[in-house]
Design goal:
heterodimer, A: about 160 residues, B: about 70% helix
Chain lengths: ~160, ~400
Amino acid sequence: MSAEMILFFVFAAIAVAGAIALIVLREPIHSALALILVMVSLAVLYLLLGAEFIAAVQIIVYAGAIMVLFVFVIMLLNAREEERTNASRMARYAGLPLGMLLTAQLAYWVAHGWPQGGVTQAAAATSTRALSTMLFRVFVLPFELTSILILIAILGAMVLAKKDF
Amino acid sequence: MEFVAQHPVLVVSVVKIVVLLLATLTTLAYLTWFERKVVAHIQARWGPYFTGPHGLLQPLADGLKFLFKEDFTPPMVDRVVYVLAPFIALSLALTTLALIPFGPATIHIFGQPTGLSVAHLDIGLLFIFAITSIGVYGVALAGWSSNSKYPLLGSLRSSAQMISYEVSLTLSVVGVLLMAGSFDLSEIILGQQGHWLKVVPRWHIIPQIVGFLCYFTSAIAETNRVPFDLPEAETELVAGFHTEYSSFKFAMFFLAEYANMITVSCLATILFLGGWLSPFPDSWTWARYMPAAVFLICGLALLQDGLRHFRGIPRIALTVISAAILALAFACSHAAVIAIALGPFWFLAKVAFLLFFYVWTRGTLPRFRYDQLMNFGWKVLLPVSLANLVITSLVILVAHR
């Protein structure tokens, strides 16, 4: 087995373990830490695929910015251990079949190869220059639409926070 | 030797890591001495003076004190996170130093040619930003896990401050990135070669002076130093996020702060001050003997000081140290040594100046109030660095047409 394969399995295992810990742990901060672990090991998987830029951005945006805000809000609200409630009935009856369906579909794709299309095109854009050319030339409309969506979300948050004008 | 021949990359990397780590930890220890001395002289005091000549053994004494103090863990803390936090802080602070290129020369370790940095990445700058962006967890988790009011308030302040200033820190660097066209730290340095009018070095600081000021201000805030040291404002918060830490865990936070100072100074040197490039044109051959001259003057001054003002063991110690510096000066006058040492000399000289600047601000400026801090970060620094970015990209666009 090559060194890359070993690294892949180590970090894939860490990512899965982190994801399980995220759900099982009851202290919100511990869950957030587990999520950071998942993010960082995903970044390592991107590195193994040769996508250095995506790996760095994964850490800067997800592990750095978004999770810092999560931890910050948890600390600010001083959230303590969550209580066990009876899980919702919908999750119990619909969740299991849907989860199995998703697993079956993923297994099918792994066995028969991924569907062609966007994946191969995106895989070509690993370098920073190629990625930005693709983002600002080919996909410029979806990119701008996403930024407008985020702007609307920011405005919404401001309206909610500042009720009296 | 057989093992070396089989795994050249591994062995060379380990050697470089050990050398860099030892050098960094020694520098960190003596940076505390340097800071205390400089602040003392700014305030017309002497600073550490009794442990060794000029207090030179003070860092050693402090280190021993940290090691032998009781490592007390308060009873109500979240134990895992409490222990994890100082490790996160220190290891992340030291990781970034692995990417810093100290010089252009190629050296040979066990016959293997290798550059003057532990790791060379095409996305070096992005990687450094990735590491520093998760550095805030050390502070945040330390405050939360201590289960105590002052640390929690301190770490909340610190997290808010680091999130706010990271935005302008990153934006102020983008101007340099546009000019260099690369994330590779060595390439960014090499892009600053040459001189305007044959004397003014083509460093990024001249066209990007606004970017440099934004960068360095945000960097001081990112490293929680005066005048932005609100997270550990003694008068309000006891000691901030590390109030409940003692012994070596406290020392780890302390070292992490100084390591971060070194990292941002190295980065400022690379991005704005031309890294290892000499400020003098290549045609001035005498400039190659600058390291030798500087060491010679330092060695002679120390020798004179030791012989004149000290008696007994300190006198002998100072003589030995000055002899070592004089030997260094002698070595630096050889062409073979100059070829390797000139780059690191200029690099470290620039970093040392920035570190002095850090200490200088600490000795001079009073602390910001919290609302002033937030206003300054969001309403002054962020718009200025954004405007700098827009103007830089416009100029580059027009120049390329």
